[in-house]
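Colleagues,

Please find the record for the two-part complex below.
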Amino acid sequence: MKLKTDAATMRFGGLTAVSALDLEIDSGEIVGLIGPNGAGKTTAFNMITGVYAPSEGKILFEGRDMTGRSPHSITEAGIARTFQNIRLFSTMSVLENVLVGCAVRERPNWFNSVLRTPGYRKRSKASHDFAMELLAETGLAELADEKATSLPYGKQRRLEIARALASRPSLLLLDEPAAGMNPQESIDLMNFIRRVRDRFDLTILLIEHHMQVVMGICARMYVLDYGVTIAHGTPDQIRRDPKVIEAYLGVE
Amino acid sequence: MKPRNTLLTALAIAIAALALWFADGTLGSFAMRILNLSAIYIVLSLSLNLVNGFTGLFSLGCAGFMAVGAYVSALLSMTADVKEMNFFLEPLTPFLQNLSLPFPLALVAGGACAAIAGLIIGLPVLRLRDDYLAIATLGFSEIIRVLITNFQSLTNGAQGLKNIPRKATTWTVWGVAAATVAFMALLTRSSYGRQLKAIRDDEIAAEAMGVNVFRVKVVSFTISSFIAGVGGALLGHMITTIDPKMFTFMLTFNILLIVVLGGSGSITGSVVASIAITILMEAMRFLDGPLNLVFLKTDGLPGLRMVVFSALLMAVVLFRQRGLMGDRELSWDGLAKAGLLPRNKKGGMA
């Protein structure tokens, strides 16, 4: 089991954003997390990545308890994420953005960095090579020296994925990777996500509103509504589930 | 680095050293003091730039750390009889009374104590953000000043310290300034420096990318305190007297001004602004005296200098919001692109 959330619950004052979430994701799976706006999907991501400590319940990653650990130590453990509203480092180049992601494995300290010790040079060279490899993989290699925020929207999304991969995760969380993309771009993205999964031996959990994308690449999915898990199963099961239809379309 | 750039840098350093040597021999002691003061401002503005410009933390604690550096180094470098002269109200604690260290050691000790103060203050305060952090650091800086004013037997209180040995010579201050520039250039262009900038650009994303944001902030703040402490120590050993009133918020404000004008996040910007502002502050002193412009005569308006200075500032901030340099650096490649240097021929040298 790659990831398991055990009745993870998040309360903000009187509001229960996510209640008793039970995710179970196996290695190598691509799993979808869907639901109407405000259903608590991003909150679930924030619990898994340590931005919020769950009010109740547990987060288990590869059998280890991650509950309440800080985001950077969770990244170090092997979970990386992208953001719904793109969060690139705006003053940095495309390459530098990816290099920041490499730092969690490179573990630079300020003293060696300033002295440019042989060990530092070796590790930073390795990071640089890996970052270039990732950029090649994501089709951004020629743009390495461009300013990250000058990239077109679709490429910024890819760069966010490349940056997340730089931390060498085994579980990747994608928050609405297809947001704002047209149908053709969405299909490209689906292929890209599958390829990345195979190439880097990843498990992927993704939030998505584009039903075409989710149904296309996810073997299984969970549906949230008002923080409650109302359904989970294969795309076919979800499509026919009366509760899901009610949540999405409303019932007379 | 390209061979051309290495050569140009070496050449520039040599020319600067030669100019300094020439100035040291020909300029009067007053002019030299202004020049050396600008070197100290380079050190101080880089210290503040590390935290404010590169790490994106709005800190206003500079003067406090300078005070720690200045006092510690002065107490360590003064001889026993000078100390006895200073501490006539209450004798200095015996341990320090008989301790006298060579200046370089005192300088490093001043920086180290400032760094420790930075660490102690940083641990609780760096959990705050933006204006809250600014207020908290400002408060701590004032606390340091109040402590210095009241620890009579350790700091000589409000009387301050006089006759500190004049050890901060031209070569010392410019040497330290050059070392600080080199340190900052190496740090900010390293993997570690990239983490600082990542925190500045987007703290949430940096944390999610595995940057230990709090720890990196503490390291940056501590290093900055060390540099500020060294700057304070140099200042004390140049003007030879220090007292608590020197280290008020106004001092931090002056340094902040240099950083903002030069461009926060730009090392060369801080260097240029330090020299320009220090010299301008003195050069415009004539404005305070009697003026005789053909259409306007005054018998001296004290403070007119600051009015002109403020107007200058406003113009810069209005027309170049991000300071003179923004977060860019002056570089040989940049100059070549602007056509100020001959184009780089393959393998050739300009």
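The two ends of chain B are 15 Å apart (CA to CA).

Comments are welcome before we finalize the supplementary table.
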